[in-house]
Amino acid sequence: MDHFSIAPIQYTRQLPERMKVAYIGHAPQKRDVVNHPFNTYNFSMILDGQGFFGWQGHEPVPIKAPCVITQWPGTIMHYGPTKGTTWRELYLIYEPTEISDLTERGLVVESRRWWPVEHASMFHQSVIQLMELAQRLDEVGMADRIDRVAELAITESLLPGPPILSKSDRTVLKIKQHLEDTWQQTHDLNQLAREHGLSPSVFRRIWNHLVGIPPHRYVIERRMIHARKMLAETAMNISEIAYAVGYEDPLYFSRLFRKNTGISASMYRRYYRT
Prior knowledge:
This protein has helices at residues 99-104, 120-134, 142-158, 167-181, 189-195, 200-211, 215-233, 238-244, 250-261, 265-272; strands at 4-6, 23-30, 34-36, 41-48, 50-55, 61-64, 67-71, 77-81, 87-94, 114-116. With 274 residues, it is an alpha+beta fold. It folds into two domains: 4-158, Sandwich (Jelly Rolls); 167-272, Arc Repressor Mutant, subunit A. Strands 1-2-9-4-7-10 form a six-stranded antiparallel β-sheet, with helices on one face. Strands 3-8-5-6 form a four-stranded antiparallel β-sheet, with no helix packed on it. Strand 5 and strand 6 (61-64) form a beta hairpin. Helix 8 (238-244) packs across helix 9 (250-261).
């Protein structure tokens, strides 16, 4: 997207709210180094590139996209891309009167002047949405949307990223995918764990942590989802459905279905048949 700088502050909000964005801009190839104070509170979202960031009384530190740096009113800021390079930046400018509300929401902390973005995918989604809204500022209500999506983008930049999975975690998720793909089959879960290099106890401990329910229960729920769909959308009788979802005993299937849904399979069909 090309360079732009616009002023939502000039637009009347339809739903007056706190934390109104005064200015928003995009610098796709920022080259210049900043070394001066500001009159406003700003968030500079560094989307591509690398450089340095420092402020009054603090030595500059190296930074790398994606990250967010802030500028405080009355404080000399010193930052910019690495010499001979550029970075891409989206900036949000707030009037000083908004600082108390930004602080109350936890978006401004004096000791937190910059931070790396951990959950980059969610952050970039909100940034893209924000830039798209900025191009439509003349539309009614668009300034309100910019205010709220700007808050979302800042929030996403601060939230922790997805957990780092260990090799055993990834192995368990691989087994989970296998069970999803073969839900109709009968599995020896202990043997399946051993085949993937895990003891049954370790497999179950990690599974319960990642999935939240025991593996045998997970398989039953997968089967019940398909059973409910067949009852509602097909003319198959209950015995045929039992076999189709992996149960050789239709009576056992019927008992299991009632236990999981609270009603019999035949009653479920009468309620939900399309």
